[in-house]
# Entry
Amino acid sequence: MAGLMSRASTVVKAKLSKLLDRAEDPSEVLDYSYEQQLQLLQNVKRGVADVVTAKKRLQLQTNQLEQSVVKLDTQARQALGSGREDLARQAVERKGAVQQQLQGLDQQVQQLAGQQEKLVSSEKQLSAKIESFRSQKEVIKANYSAAEAQVRIGEAATGIGEQMADTGLAIQRAREKTDQMQARAGAIDELVAAGTLEDFTAGDQTQLDRELAQLSSGVQVDDELARRKAELGAGTEKKELEQ
Amino acid sequence: MIVRLMNEGQYRMNDDALQRLNALDDRAGSALEREAEEEFRKELEQMVQLVLDEGERLEDGDLTPSDVLVPPSDLSLEEAHELFSGEGLIPDLPVREGAGGS
# Structure
């Protein structure tokens, strides 16, 4: 029964040996490996951008859903105030559906932020190692005939290869997480488009929506009139009090 | 000895700390065998914390290969199986003439 460390090392070493076995002309390998490192650096930068995009999309949806909850709440209250329990019930049901979608969304945004952090840190390490490798590569090439150089090629290639495998893992994990989140964001978009999560006043309105909107504006008019009346009535008294 | 915390960085550790790390590692390996996710996660987190506490971080540009690798602390059992099978989680490193690279 093996521990985790030996298993992880075995996997990474197997990946590296595939790479190093092909090393016939070490100088050529060094240049080729360097190109691959730069390519990987581009991949990790793209990975960061993808995570940021997915995170922003989820954050935007969170805001929209939260606004939706507030609106549906108001609409339910107005409907009840106007004696339309049927409409109130619908608003509350929709609110429930929205709240269900909201659940865990914050946590997922956090998870994406965590992936972003890991990728950025991996990018930084890879970038620093590539820079070291680039300068060592020139030294090694200049001293190629020495037996010492052969050893150093092996070491440098293993050191950078290990980082490449590690960065590859970070990219892969971030990609899986990002794909999951994109799928969830897509599902929420679909629910919104199907009207399940829409508030009554947004977008295409059904007969029901219009009824509620009318009720709502009716309530607003009533409210405002009541307020004006109160102001008129209280106006004289208030002035006296202020003096 | 040099320990790599995967997705974190490399650390130099003394023999004493390394022994403790090995003990935790045995327990984590056993938890993995028994599919005991909670225990597996706990041991793995302790391993990572031990390296962070006791290890001396290498410069990012250091090209010294690591002696051992510690998987990421938030690795799930499912991901662990995938990682150790050598398929999927770590993409193959690119090789020349497109032979087997991804």
Q: What stands out?
A: Chain B touches chain A through 47 residues (CB under 8 Å). Chain B has one domain: 2-83. The beta strands of chain B are 2-5, 9-12, 56-57, 68-70. The helical segments of chain B are 15-33, 37-54, 77-84.
